[in-house]
Amino acid sequence: MRRNELPTPCYLISIPALEKNLRILKGVMDRTGCRILLAQKAFSMYALYPLLGRYLSGTAASGLFEAKLGWQEMGKENHIYSPAYREEEFDEILSYCGHIVFNSFEQIEKYRERVLDAGKSIGIRINPQCSTQEGHAIYDPCAPGSRLGVTRERFVPELLEGVEGIHFHTLCEQDAEDLKTTLDAVEDKFGEFLYRMKWVNFGGGHHITRPGYNIRLLEECICKIREKYQVTVYLEPGEAVALNAGILLTRVLDTFSQDGNIAILDTSAACHMPDVLEMPYRPPLAGSKEEGEYPYTYRLAGPTCLAGDVIGTYSFDHPLAGGEYLEFEDMAIYTMVKNNTFNGMCLPAIAVEREDGSCEVIKTFGYEDFRMRL
Asked: Which domains are delineated in the chain?
């Protein structure tokens, strides 16, 4: 099967592109001795976990279901962090995860003995109160009033009994310069406690596989913390694992003119690429340019009833026609994990593309997948 034979809409993951990212991440591990986990919140395509497991150290989870998926499908190190744990789920979480990161000392006091009795490692998430992001407060764990992580003011050293790790996550699609700035703040506020730890987790948001990322500085940061405090350093990127490793294949359903040219696609921003509305951002589209750069400009929109289900405005070197295929790029991450079936929209198929250009459909969805959620 080739691309033009795939059903639409369809997420198509490139095996060669994915492996390129994985080799970069494995190089960082080999040169620094750190351990890199897949943050499943960004990419949970478990059909590819055997491949990812050949390069990565394991998985990171945000809740019970991700923890179970990582344990079942990759079977390597499995870490979990949640702002708070559900009592009725905690014993099952313990059966899947070796590292349990807590968001507060209150949660540590509640669950400490159960974690230690199970022989698992306890971590505490800190908030260094060092914002390095601009324009996306919704993704900034250091924003004022953040519920994520313990600030130095609320840090209670007397309650560190049994705690082996410190975790922080402050970045979002950022370079190593921002990590260095964050580490300076972490050491300034929490450095005295790092000497008591066995591991430190730098969290995610590191855009390691992006062209131009400062890998050398990242490795210097890892080695400094590792050697100074004699700890194992973990990173848990999600986006960097599958960055630019997939597309969303879609077809044009209709075109018409109304305050400009409009093209209705068989894919929806609201249902299939929700970060377009949440971030917001304009996803790259193969063969297109910015508005007005090519002769034919269209506002691309989804088929739902939501007035704001608009993907963006793009220009083309030819007029679009019904049935034409379009390819939205960088659609492996934060897509299938965030899908929904609003308006009864069908979830996109999931497929892989190999080096020779051959494609295989891994999964398709239908009415029952919509019905079972209601």
From this structure: 3-11+246-331+339-371 (2.40.37.10), 33-241 (3.20.20.10)
